[in-house]
Specification:
Helix content is 36%, strand content 22%. By secondary structure, the chain is an alpha+beta fold. Strands 1, 2, 3, 4, 5, 6, 14, 15 and 16 form a nine-stranded mixed β-sheet that branches. Strands 7, 9, 10, 12 and 13 form a five-stranded antiparallel β-sheet that branches.
């Protein structure tokens, strides 16, 4: 049986959610557990209730909308993603995976298809990690990687705690989500990169998510007068930092063409135009599909920082603040996604996700995989983010076929 979703209905649902927190540049702003996020969650729940789903919420605010199967005691097949966004985010990141799941349920309903296993659409709390840390909060708690009490105690940018916000928004549910079991989890998502578009492919069959490591580097030299302190006597933290950053890029890019290294945050102290800065704090985001390459990169960064600090007579410290190992998805489930694309006569390719996703955490507790659809020019985390109605419908149709195969 070959089924396709309703492209127009999916697009209309995406447009409706996008209006919540709409930005002047055509994007969306719904920070996790903010008022806008709560409004989007409530609209999603109302749609799920209309579709005949049972809706429940766990203690970290994850939403589970369940379309019961003939044998509801069996572990359910799940899909979903997140509704929270970046401060000036696009209209598709995260929300597409949620509404593609809802569209699957709507299609099953209108065709009166009864599945053996239940089908669950999940909204994971705080995937983006903007308003509070860590990112991927809801799926980490679900998978047991993050204790619930620790998540509840996190302080938001507004000075509230996550627990207080869950209460205030009405999304403090009950029950230990770790006890919920899925037989499969399939997350549909926009690619957020240019690979599918450049290759002329309809569907990305995601085999793996690359590993992610965050490093914080602190340099301490001495403040000095910009006009009177000779160059050879300076302990300039900024110049030391710049030399480190340049050398890290040069050496790490020789390790592998697939490696990604980014200096995304840089702060100088005292940050005065006429003062030689005595302090510099900056970060590296290092990503690669192979854990051994990440390990080699970390060793190289340590060696570079030590050598530059010695050369420039400054003190330096290196701290690893986050590490997520590369995650391989379930081969059987990945093959089913590929087969679903073939059934629908869609061109697909195997690929590695460069971004982190909730499916990374689900892979530890259930067979998991992801479906990517093209992103225009690879733009994401940006108001200009765009995927066409046809591409989004293609991905949702692949999701529908895969869920049917897993649940019937």
């Amino acid at each position: 049986m070959v089924l396709r979703v309703n492209e127009e209905r999916l697009w209309e649902s995406l447009e409706a959610i996008a209006e919540i927190g709409a930005t002047e540049g055509g994007g969306s702003s719904r920070l996790a557990l903010s008022e806008n996020d709560a409004r989007a969650r409530k609209l999603f729940i109302s749609w799920c209730v209309e579709a005949g789903c049972d809706v429940d919420i766990d203690a970290i605010g994850n939403i589970f909308a369940t379309r019961k199967g003939r044998e509801p005691d069996l572990s359910a097949v799940a899909t979903g993603s997140h509704l929270d966004t970046q401060p000036l985010g696009g209209r598709f990141d995260g929300v597409y995976g949620v509404l593609a799941g809802l569209e699957v349920i709507r299609c099953l309903n209108e065709r009166s298809i009864e599945t053996r296993k239940s089908v669950v659409v999940v909204v994971w709390t705080n995937e983006e990690g903007v308003r509070f840390n860590p990112g991927l909060t809801g799926s980490q708690v679900f998978s047991g990687a993050l204790p619930l009490a620790v998540a509840h105690d996190q302080v938001t940018l507004d000075g509230t705690t996550v627990y207080e916000d869950l209460v205030a928004t009405g999304f403090l549910g009950e029950g230990d989500s770790c006890s919920r079991k899925f037989s499969a989890f399939i997350e549909a998502h926009i690619e957020q990169g240019p690979i599918l578009e450049k290759a002329g492919m309809d569907i990305g069959v995601v085999e793996k998510v690359q590993g992610i490591t965050f490093i914080e580097v602190s340099i301490r030299g001495e403040n000095g007068h910009a006009g009177t302190l000779p160059m050879e006597e300076r302990k300039d933290a900024c110049m030391a930092a710049c030399e480190i950053i340049g050398e890290v890029e040069r050496q790490l890019c020789r390790l592998s063409a697939d490696l990604r290294v980014t200096c995304g945050r840089f702060t100088l102290t005292p940050s005065s135009i006429s003062t030689v800065p005595g302090g510099a704090d900056f970060t590296f985001d290092i990503r690669h599909p192979d854990e051994s390459v990440i390990s080699a990169s970390l060793a190289a960064v340590g060696d570079i920082v030590e050598a530059v600090a010695r050369k420039r007579a400054v003190e330096a410290g290196v701290t690893k603040s986050l590490h997520k190992a590369p995650v391989s998805f379930d081969p059987r489930l990945t093959q089913k996604v590929e087969a679903a694309a073939d059934t629908l006569s869609l061109k697909s390719m195997r690929m590695v996700s460069g971004a982190g996703h909730d499916a990374m955490n689900l892979a530890a507790v259930a067979p998991s995989t992801m479906i990517f659809v093209p992103s225009l020019s690879g733009i994401s985390h940006n108001e200009a983010e765009y995927s066409s109605p046809a591409d989004l419908a293609n991905g949702a149709s692949v999701l529908l076929q895969t869920i049917l195969d897993e649940s019937c």
